[in-house]
Amino acid sequence: MRKSLCLILFQALAFASSSSGAQSTFAVPELPRLSLDNFSPGIQEQIEEAYSNARSHLEDAATSGRLGMVLQTYGLLQEAAVCYRRAGQLEPNVFQWAYYLGVVEADQGKCGAAASTLRLALRVDPDYLRAKLRLANCLLASAEWDASGKLYAEIVEQHPNNADAYYGLGRVRAAGHDLAGAVVAYRKATELFADFGAAHYALALTYRALGKADQAGEQLRLYERNKDGAPPSSDPLLEEVRELNRSATQQVQMGIQLERQGRLEESAAAHEKALEIDSQLVQAHVNLVELYGQLGQFEKAEEHYRVAAGLDPGSSENYYNYGVLLLGAEKYQKAENAFRKTIEIDPFHASAHNNLGFLLERQGRLLEAVAEYRSALENKPNNRQAHFNLGRVLVNMEKYEEGIRELKKTLQPEDENTPRYMYALGAAFARSGDHQNGLRYIRQARDGAAALGQFGLVASIDRDLRTLESSRPPQ
Amino acid sequence: MNKKNRDSVRLSPREKHYCILGRRNFLQMLSLGFTGRIGIPGTGALANPSSIPLFREVAAEVGLKFDHFAGTTGQYYMPEIMGAGVALFDYDNDGDLDVYLVQGTMLDPTQDPRRARFSPPPGWKPGNRLFRNLLSETGKLRFVDVTEKAGIGHVGYGMGVAVGDYDNDGFQDLYVTNFGHNVLYHNNGDGTFTDVTVQAGVDDPRWSTSAAWVDYDRDGRLDLFVANYLDFTVKGNKQCYASTGERDYCTPKMYQPVPARLFHNRGDGTFEDVTEAAGIGASIGPGLGVVCADFNSDGWPDIYVANDGAAAHLWINQQNGTFKERGLSSGTAYNAEGAPQAGMGVAAGDFDGDGDDDIFKTNLTNEGCNLYVNDGHGNFNDESAEFGLIQPTFPYTGFGTEWFDYDNDGHLDLFIANGAVNRIESLRGSPYPFNQNNQLFRNESGGRKFREMTGVAGPALALSEVSRGAAFGDINNDGAIDIVVANNNGPVRLLLNQTRSLNRNHWLLVRLEAAGGNRFAIGARVEVRLRGRNLLRRAHTDGSYLSASDIRVHFGLGEDTKIEKLIANWPDGRCEEWDRLEVDRMVTIRQGTGRSLMVEG
């Protein structure tokens, strides 16, 4: 094993001041004591190099600060804070060190200390917007309403297009029970950045407190659409810290975020980069099975499946992703094997049960399919697709009552898919001989599809409606 | 136990009054009841703590010897870091609280526990343990292990425990949750228990965590809500890493959540799984903490579930056997910024004295806890920053928690059992780098601010361990609430409350006996009226994390020596009042022996 015990022992932390406000009166703190045992080799080397540099240039603030940045990027915040304090003592007039120190203090929940440090940083550079916002946020978290309110107001005056500041101002006003004022600020924040999830959420709760239920509901819907939406923020200094991160897991996290944004090729590239750093990272291979599957690159996906299966034969997610890949490629027997393997590892995997049910159903093994769909629903009772599949099979087995009961469960939530499910429900009623309900649901499905502009579906429904209406039994 | 203090209150009904437990009238009463400034009696001694500790740790001293065994293998199986819980309940009805502790084992049952990274201590016995309290018998707090005799030592990968008398025979039963199959123990009433899981139909093979007994349809029979967590399996264990590249426990996002279960009590010893029919399956989350209370003041119990890394669920009772999930619209799903948090433990209580139950939820390190303040209609705002609870809880991962009045001043305080789930960098080099100290917060300024008392509470609160479950109750029947803390991979702790020697505050401990079902009156709301203020408390065993607390309802009364009235709003919706209650007593209140009150509305 490459992981040697790497202990860099220096004197214990003697400098305990948490505020760089004390920079001018305290001695320069020693470099922190680090134990890098079990770190990834690449990360270990990176930290050792930065440490060695700092040690060789004890009077150089930049090397200590750089060590702090490397430690911060890997989450070693206490140690990073010592380095920044040291750099700040050596170079009191450099904004960067005080700012970074304020950030790591705030990230550790030491808002009192962070506020002092950030104030000091802002004396050096009063124009660094992210520092001001961080200070205001810290004051808000500490319930220092007046101070945070003043700061947000100041930012709004200087940066009238800053949605974050309006949002903060709204929170201060809401805490002071100025609900009308809070609404104004939150609305401004959402005007400046329409997908601002937190602002929509806060606005919803404020409207609710004002008794405006409809507006509250509308804002909650907007929140749900943009839960993670936040205004783009430029923080070049923190970007420098992030760029130092060479860990494979960081690349995977970036890849996952890119996938969520629909940037599949970039996501695949980030995962591949992770594997360049650590070729044994199972999760990266597993994610690539899915990503390359979506990108239509079957061979690449299959290759990553094989590597992942070799590295970790217990990854149910790997078998599941492979099963989905094979299903898409119409390799049904292999797909069935993959889903069975998934379930062997994770008997509670609802989607694997559902997909296996589908494969059994297409082989005409209806009873087995029903059992799989039921297992899917036991583990995910709100699985709309499984309710639909189960209902459909039961109807095909002429178990109309049970089948219709399942299909009824597909009508919620009301969304763009609801007309299709309602159409299926109507058809099930019609097959069962209940023309009245059949017509009722099919007509409702038609109306719903028309309202949503689903004209292809409308045309299909119309054809069935004509047939159904012409074969309607006499009343 | 001092029998002189155990009064059974039997008062003949006189005149009919309106039961004013509604929030509007509660507030009206507060405003009419006195003039001038709100005083906080009996706070002097604790505002300037003396050298006497607030709590003293006495577990081993009183025979409560138990070490949790997590079965750690170095594979970082998630269940290893999540357990376990503890129950405080009087299993033999002798008037004192006994202790049930949930135990882990090897996750792979073919492996020998001696091969675990942390071997069990010498003399260690596998399985859960029941310790009988000898206080009533001997007058001295002392515990003896009666597990074998009671037949209650289930061996499994234990998680939590819920306490409730599901068959209304007057003896409290136990539901034990596991990573794997769960167990329902029926209390036979003769000091023994019988495993009735199969015939009752309440098993769940998933990874279950907290459970709660709740009579959701108010038919007088306790139903069972079981929170389930993730689809983790030992075979499917994933490899997760810290930011530095070291192996660490996975976050819940690495697995899929599995649905909670709701079992309806048929009244014949069997239960029906009504998860889907009741609407509970409509929303799935990785559930950990559960607490049931009437959050929207409509007289029907609702269910709040803390989900780990996902929106919390507030299941609002529709009064027809179904629930609707209202976490988002109620304001309890997320923090003030609309972000989901890693919910662990939960507590419900009227900390601000306005007549409704507020929610406290513990979360992961770097998140801070949530304090959801109820407006009386089931609408909440996360005011954790306003009440000074975000900053001090930010560095900790919180688990077991409860609203409880530790100093008997009439205001509900908070305890949080802490312990990380991911390695703490500053503990690098420690074989189990997850230790954190627990926290105590005192409710000050008449319910407007909390002050952390951890640093002045004494050595018991200075212990740095990996705490999980916490159960609360008056274990030595002295009128002050004690705490049992279940540590992961460590010894159980009994924090004996010492504050009776620090102040002259008075108290009342109420044991409820409902008529016609739900014998222990789980879900009842009890109001004590003092001169100038009302105290509202709920009879419950649920909440906290994986644990069950004393069913008796405790009131700290401050320096008040006169209880003007006690009003019980029973789970069946009926309401009665009693007067002529004396302070510093344990009393039993039986339904049907008070003056009936008409329920307003």
Description:
The complex is a heterodimer of chains A (475) and B (601). Chain A is mainly α and 475 residues long. Among the domains of chain A are: 1-142, Alpha Horseshoe (Serine Threonine Protein Phosphatase 5, Tetratricopeptide repeat), CATH 1.25.40; 411-475. Helix content of chain A is 71%, strand content 1%. Chain A has a two-stranded antiparallel sheet with strand order 1-2. Residues 1-25 of chain A have low confidence and may be disordered. With 601 residues, chain B is mainly β. Chain B folds into 2 domains: 58-504, Methylamine Dehydrogenase, Chain H; 507-596, Immunoglobulin-like (Sandwich), CATH 2.60.40. Chain B contains 7 helices and 43 strands. A 6-stranded mixed beta sheet of chain B has the order 2-43-41-40-37-38, with helices on one face. In chain B, strands 18, 19, 20, 21 and 22 form a 5-stranded antiparallel beta sheet that branches. Chain B is globular, with a radius of gyration of 22 Å. At the A-B interface, α3, α10, α11, α13 and α20 of A face loops of B.
Short structural summary:
With 475 residues, chain A is mostly helical.
Write the layout of secondary structure elements.
The complex is a heterodimer of chains A (475) and B (601).
Chain A: E1 7-8, E2 34-35, H1 41-56, H2 61-73, H3 77-90, H4 95-107, H5 111-124, H6 129-141, H7 145-158, H8 163-175, H9 179-192, H10 197-209, H11 213-225, H12 236-243, H13 248-260, H14 264-277, H15 282-294, H16 298-311, H17 316-328, H18 332-345, H19 350-362, H20 366-379, H21 384-396, H22 400-408, H23 418-432, H24 435-451, H25 455-470
Antiparallel strand pairs in A: 1-2
Chain B: E1 6-9, E2 17-19, H1 23-33, H2 44-47, E3 55-57, E4 86-89, E5 98-101, E6 129-133, H3 135-138, E7 143-145, H4 147-150, E8 158-164, E9 173-178, E10 183-187, E11 193-195, H5 197-200, E12 208-214, E13 223-228, E14 240-241, E15 247-248, E16 261-265, E17 271-273, E18 287-293, E19 302-310, E20 313-317, E21 323-325, H6 327-330, E22 341-342, E23 346-349, E24 358-361, E25 370-374, E26 380-382, H7 390-393, E27 398-404, E28 413-418, E29 436-437, E30 439-444, E31 449-452, E32 464-465, E33 467-473, E34 482-487, E35 493-497, E36 506-513, E37 525-530, E38 533-538, E39 553-558, E40 565-569, E41 575-578, E42 585-590, E43 595-599
Parallel strand pairs in B: 1-42, 2-43, 36-42
Antiparallel strand pairs in B: 3-35, 4-5, 5-6, 6-7, 8-9, 9-10, 10-11, 12-13, 13-16, 14-15, 16-17, 18-19, 19-20, 19-22, 20-21, 23-24, 24-25, 25-26, 27-28, 28-30, 29-32, 30-31, 33-34, 34-35, 36-39, 37-38, 37-40, 40-41, 41-43
